[in-house]
Inverse folding.
């Protein structure tokens, strides 16, 4: 049985999501932004967040994977799925589960900016600053976490644990 150590119980996550929603609402109430979730890890966070945003918005998703010898549509991050729309003049709020090395988000944000949006902001539930390789500005941040493997509330280890309602640390040996 894998050993999990609880970091943030669901009530604490709820309070953080509420705070983030208030910050985003102040900035975007009259802007009809596109809320862009990075799959798969952000799916629960995004679902909770957008239900607290009581103004007009659109929701979209993007799937990214690290560059591994494959064809890359935007620098070092490979985009998959159907996000291929005109974002010129639009306000984009990228919603991510966790910023770790920053590589994924650095390239995604650059890629989005090349589409001439009105603005691009990043909302991340978690960040692990100790592992950062690329600088990424997080405009709306839930929590800072230590350098450990995090699961639950959408985040996985080998596709497991996404369904756990709390956020926990997983023993490295328990991750295949
Ligand atoms: P990056 O290193 O900042 O490029 O992180 C890319 C992706 O790795 C994140 O969006 C997460 O999906 C995943 N990731 C990084 N650290 C963790 C973790 O501790 N638990 C689960 N997923 C993680």
């Amino acid at each position: 049985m894998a050993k999990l150590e609880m970091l943030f119980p669901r009530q604490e996550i709820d309070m953080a999501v509420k705070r983030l929603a208030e910050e985003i609402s102040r900035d975007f109430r009259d802007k009809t932004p596109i809320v862009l979730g990075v799959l798969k890890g952000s799916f629960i966070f995004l679902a909770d967040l957008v239900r607290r945003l009581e103004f007009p918005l659109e929701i979209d998703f993007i799937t990214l994977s690290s560059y591994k010898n494959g064809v890359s549509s935007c620098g070092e991050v490979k985009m998959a799925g159907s996000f291929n729309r005109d974002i010129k003049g639009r306000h984009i709020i990228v919603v991510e589960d966790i910023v770790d090395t920053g590589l994924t988000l650095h390239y995604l944000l650059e890629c989005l900016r090349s589409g001439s949006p009105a603005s691009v902001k990043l909302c991340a539930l978690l960040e692990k600053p100790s592992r950062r390789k690329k600088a990424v500005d997080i405009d709306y941040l839930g929590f800072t976490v230590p350098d450990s493997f995090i699961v639950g509330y959408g985040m996985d280890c080998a596709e497991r644990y996404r369904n756990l309602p709390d956020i926990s640390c997983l023993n490295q040996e328990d991750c295949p």
